[in-house]
Design goal:
The structure is a single chain. The protein is of the alpha+beta class. 59% of the residues lie in helices and 9% in strands. It contains 11 helices and 5 strands; from the N terminus they run αααααααααβαββαββ. It has helices spanning 3-8, 17-38, 47-55, 67-83, 92-105, 108-129, 134-211, 218-240, 260-267, 282-301, 352-362; strands spanning 270-274, 310-316, 320-327, 367-372, 378-385. The chain is rod-shaped, with a radius of gyration of 35 Å.
């Protein structure tokens, strides 16, 4: 059983609450029976005592569904049990469980009111049964207050954890949105470049038709029209497989594989590019560049400003561009966003930097994996297809 998860999750959201609580109630009933038979702090229960003792455990099966009614039902059975001076220790686990549930699921005002009421009832019964046992009065009151404080502390802890998780989810969503906007900016550049080429090629074709109609160069005209068609096909494929809507302003030229040497040189890492003369689509090249950029940024940041133990390998395998960035383990681990990119300290591999890189790879129909390497270190690996299938509108 994961006790940390049990303390942090909402008790009403736990799986099979009635079944689990019924099992726990049965276990508490067995414990109460053992205590009633072995501990000597009151009269041995008779038929009425056993009925009250066991009846006090039945409502615990619904303690998370209806905390206050369960507490009232338990008190209704436990109060006469104690008043008749039966074994006092036996029903304590059931009573404390009901108190804890009310404190851990209710507001502080309700917890205080319940504490005052239960303490008053307990003290009244204790004064009737054992009016001269002051130490016993303090002990019983202390247990009641301690259980209520413990339950209220667990409730505050759950609220704190829920707030942290909510903020982390909002931050992760913000990072993904930022990455999508950066993809949109890159595609804006790509689209603007393609449209410019189409405009130039169209002007060339128009000039050939109008300038010298008597000496029409059919080969030049056909070549210009073919180049226009090819540019349109490339631009349409790259744009439609990445984003449905472009909503951003350009921010400089679109990065590509040719920019990798300058990028890697500044980090001190080793670069190997094995693409030959194959033409890499602009969107795929931009995705590869951004993945390497994010990986190197975190490797250098958490490696003391040195990236000599980082290897960058870019190659082609059956019309798929592979990007692999490995860290030998010399860094301290973790990236600036707390996700441990290219660091040995990563636990789960689902931080904001990795989310952004996966979004970048997904934008061109590729995949990305990131995690610790066997023998130490960290590795980011991406597969980006060169032939991007068009998505039906």
């Amino acid at each position: 059983m994961d006790f940390a998860a049990a303390f942090t999750r909402d008790p009403q959201a736990a799986p099979y609450p009635v079944r689990c609580d019924a099992t726990a109630a049965a276990a508490f009933a067995v414990l109460a029976a053992v205590l009633a038979l072995t501990v000597d702090d009151g009269r041995r229960p008779d038929l009425l005592g056993w009925a009250l003792l066991l009846a006090a455990h039945v409502p615990l099966a619904w303690r998370r569904k209806a905390p206050m009614p369960v507490l009232l039902a338990v008190v209704a059975c436990v109060a006469p049990y104690h008043a008749l001076d039966y074994m006092h220790l036996a029903p304590i686990p059931a009573s404390m469980t009901a108190l804890y549930t009310v404190a851990s699921t209710g507001r502080p005002r309700r917890t205080v009111l319940v504490g005052l009421t239960v303490t008053s009832v307990t003290l009244t019964i204790q004064l009737v049964v054992n009016p001269h046992e002051m130490v016993e009065l303090l002990r019983v009151s202390g247990w009641v207050i301690a259980m209520l404080v413990f339950g209220a502390s667990i409730r505050l802890y759950r609220q704190l954890v829920a707030g942290v998780i909510e903020r982390a989810e909002r931050e992760a969503e913000r990072k993904v949105v930022e990455e999508r906007l950066r993809i949109a900016r890159d595609l804006h550049d790509l689209l603007a470049h393609s449209i410019t080429l189409i405009g130039v090629q169209t002007s060339v074709a128009a000039h050939v038709l109008v300038a010298t109609p008597d000496r029409l160069d059919r080969e030049a005209l056909a070549r210009a029209l073919d180049e226009i068609a090819e540019t349109c096909r490339d631009a349409r494929s790259e744009v439609r497989t990445t984003l449905d809507v472009l909503r951003a302003a350009p921010e400089g030229p679109l990065p590509d594989l040719a920019s990798l040497p300058d990028l890697v040189r500044t980090s001190g890492a080793d670069l190997t590019v094995r693409t030959g003369t194959t033409k890499v689509p602009a969107a795929v090249g931009a995705a590869a560049y951004r993945i390497v950029q994010e990986s190197l940024t975190n490797a250098v940041r958490h490696g003391g400003g040195r990236g000599a133990d980082v290897q960058v390998d870019v190659g082609l395998v059956e019309e798929v561009l592979t990007v692999r960035v490995t860290n030998g383990g010399g860094g301290s681990g973790g990236d600036g966003d707390g996700d441990g990119v290219l660091g040995p300290g990563l636990a789960g591999g689902a931080g904001y930097g990795i989310l952004g890189m996966r979004e970048r790879a997904r934008s061109v129909g590729g995949t990305l994996s990131a995690g610790p390497r066997e023998g130490g270190g960290f590795e980011v690996s991406a597969r980006l297809p060169l032939v991007m299938k068009e998505v039906a509108a």
